[in-house]
Amino acid sequence: MVSLIPKKVKYRKWHTFRRNPNRVSPTTRGSTVAFGSYGLKALTPARIRSNQIEAARKVLSRELGKNGRVWIRIFPDMPYTQKPAEVKLGKGKGDPQGYQVPVLGGRVLFEVDGVDIAVAREAIRKAGTKLPLKTKFVARQG
User: Fold this and answer.
1) Which CATH superfamily is domain 39-78+97-142 in?
2) What are the b/e assignments for 111-136, b being 16+ CB within 10 Å?
3) Domain-wise residue ranges, the chain
4) What stretches in the chain show pLDDT beneath 70?
5) CB < 8 Å & 24+ apart, contacts of 15-19
6) Has this prediction a pTM greater than 0.85?
7) Whole-number mean pLDDT of the chain?
8) DSSP result, 55-111
């Protein structure tokens, strides 16, 4: 199992980002397929945790077999916190639980290569079900 966590962080806890993702325009950075032939593109904004990325990666590598190659285009570097169960409000922010990555619509999350389009489409569809956002299959332009 590959653990997606940063080697070192400057701050243990981050501020929470803006609450209304509909007011944020779609991303332009990382919006095209750059490494592989096919990709999984996010359509809606969300925060993807490291265990969700790992679940999608496992599905992709299992479906593609030995010939397929997978690129992960996102990295979870933002810590998220959680307070223990049945704790009253106040008393500060909770302890860090893991890492996540904020993703806007239009971002390519995964790329695959080395397989035909039918296998890639099915693998990417299955990987998209493991993520907490709407996704679509995209192919390299040109």
Assistant:
1) Ribosomal protein L16/L10 (3.90.1170.10)
2) bbbebeeebbeebbeebbebbebebe
3) 39-78+97-142
4) 1-2, 21, 142
5) 17/102
6) yes
7) 92
8) HHHHHHHHHHTTT-EEEE-----EEEEEPPTT--S-SS--EEEEEEEEE-TT-EEEE
